[in-house]
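Action item from last week, closing it out:
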Amino acid sequence: MTIASQLRIALLSALILSEGAYAQWEHQLTAPGDGAYEADSRFGASASYAAEFIAVGRPNFGRCGAVEIIHRVNGIWEFVDQIIPDDCTETGSFGHSVSMSDFGGQIRLAASDVEREQVYLFQYNRGSASWSQTARTSAVVADSAFGSEVHLDRNWLAVGAGSQETRWFSLEGASGVERTGQIYAYTISSAGTLSPGSPTLPVPTIRQPTMLGNGARFVLTHVDDLPTIVSLFAVRGSTTRSGVWKVQFDGGRWVQRAFQSDFESATGEEIGPGRFSSVAYDGSRLYLGQPSASQCGVETILPRAAGCVSVLRFVSGSYQVVQTLHGREANQGFGDRVALGSSLYVTAWSGQLFVGSRPFGSIIVQPLLTTLVPLGDDLVFTSVPESDDFLGGVGQITDTRDVSRRPQRTIYPGEGAAAGTGVALTEGMALLGAPSDDQELGSVFVFRPGSDGVWANRSREKLVSPNRSVDERFGIDVAIDGAFALVGAPGANGSGMYRFELEFGEWRNPIHIGRPTNPDISAPEGWGVDVSIDGGLLAMTNPTGGGFAVYTEIDVYSERVAHIDDIEVSDRWLAILAGDPTDSTSTLSLYPITEEPLVVSDPQEIELSDFRPTLAMDGDVVAVSGNAGVSVYHREGETWSLRATIPGDRGFGDSLAISGDRIIVGNGGQVQTYDWIVRTGSYEEIFPSSSPDGRDSNIAGLAQLGTWSLAGMPRADGDLESGSPQDGRGALERRGYSDGVRCDLSEDCGSGFCVDGFCCNVACDQECDLCGFGGSEGVCIRDTSSPECLAVEDAGVPDAGGDAGMDGGVPDAGVDASTPPDSGTDSGTDSGIDIDVDGDEDGCACRTMDSSQSSKRWFGVFALGLLFLNRRRARR
């Protein structure tokens, strides 16, 4: 039996197929990795995908390496071939880098042997279902690591020589030789032969020697039908900084389009320190990964190097950051690999696969994912070429659709639990407090999404009090922040709250935090009715006269406040809501907090004209409910001011939750959703009111996380005061953001488009389109900040060149294909698209007119044609 046959049998026995509209998180294929087939063969050192084929490099296999071919037929992935070069007579590393393309119906594969410094080209014959070698090229310069990276796109092949010595020149006239690397480009004939596309690509003009060569990390694509290469480099100076270098093959030569090592956003925020290690480019946006960056823009400063991916666009003559995707502290190395498919995929050093900026679950727990290849249809191929567990390397095909993101789920702990008085929501986990559960001992039920997408309380997982005291009312309120959860327990025995810690996916190490010892605090019982947590700050209340207390690891502050109703702590601010039943008014007190030492003083007090029972807070936004609606306050500096009022009847706002620019409001058994629209400066209801559980179940608590909401309903009959046992439950809903709301992922937007950090009304994916422009967030508009991207509308004013199309009085920047000609440059009928060919960045092919303008121009052309014919007839 051949090795290929053994591979097929092993893979078929391990193959798991996912059916239905929502696939599971299970792997659809696991390639050899148990050490049975050539230990240390490094299967998965490289991979590429095209036309239902995956090519996987195995550079340590056999004598000179190999490339394994996987093919999908009728939804089933199988190993179908193993490619070895024709001249495999000596030791090599064939499969070090691979790339596939499907152009004009021809499927091609390029694979390099970096040890022998050769690159091979293969072509697929559909009739015989076989691969044949059509070309081979060798290093131009010896010992240059020729083939360190290869890329195919259309009929072009680009080969990196990451260690080639290159002479560099500075702007000051200095020069030298250093291993900066080089990129070579070749054109491919229909027969699969190679010829140089140009003698060599230009070496960028730099001020100092580069450390990371041009042939180390680069991409090859086509922009405006021109072969385009974007490469990373790093410049040595007082600090090492990274940059990008972009060239296009235009007019028979390679032309440098961009060279930049300093990047900042439109507001002047610089990309923080840390070298780029990955690059992706779609012709419009540039994606740069910084897996070792401790600071990616001034907006986020992490205590450890979590990494980030910066999204850039070419604006006003330079690349500017329009969005930053941040890794988490627990996922260092975020951005080590960036690949563009139907979504943006990013991997982290921890072995987690991310879709966009969120993990959908760990697919392999290994130190490094080497390849990341989108396969279309929400599939992705990943591999680990070597580890202690998989000696020969392992590759996996995984469906990335997050099955937990269905529109609505009801989570139900069981009969008589009356869960839902307190609710909390975090990534992949929901908590429902049930203080009367388990014969009045109290519990907090833990719900998680399964591989089938259903949220469930598996194995009756729940948090319980270590004291297990009757009437402790454990679970009356819950709060989550990161790896810590707070549970209120205001009963007679152990009045206070418990802090639990998340370790290896399980809640452990409960610590009891009792009432403060402040002598002014008289009530020993009732502490923990409301709890809140943010980072190292913990807070709880005692509504019966005890007031409130704020805790850090080493200190506590408490104060007596009469008739306290609610408490929230966020972003080192404390919000206290206290009502006076004698005159039906409330006071919102906002305290700044200093943690070391703990100082809570000098609050800003806002007098509210009616009684406000509920409070919600997230960052610099606070909302309070009242008889006439919900008032929302926003912090600027140290001052809070009214941002907006959301009107509503009595009962509107019995429960509230805030997450970013979204507020959800409980109104009896209904949930109403509002988004803050930057463009209009107001909260707008974007969805009709809904009964999450489909019945009249009064909502006692709400939690919000991104586009997910959780409503707690402890009494199914809607009567919270009923003494009869009821089946409490929670309802999870997911709804996209409206246009103009800040976003990270397109799937978070109702429109399906997240552009420049805002949900956008359309795809807005042309070079000159912007959707995050000040005052127009959420609406796709044209970039008017650069001459190349000025909208060229038919405004009735001729071009300087005499164009009858009347493009807004703005002279054409390039070849305007209109009639009659512009100064001799027009070549036919004006299509409304000015094509930039003057060497500027990207050519900026901007849309210039709508269909009505096009009709007018066609009418003009027709009239001119008739006039021309009449003149010819008259001359005859």
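Closing note: Residues 819 and 829 are 6 Å apart (CA to CA).
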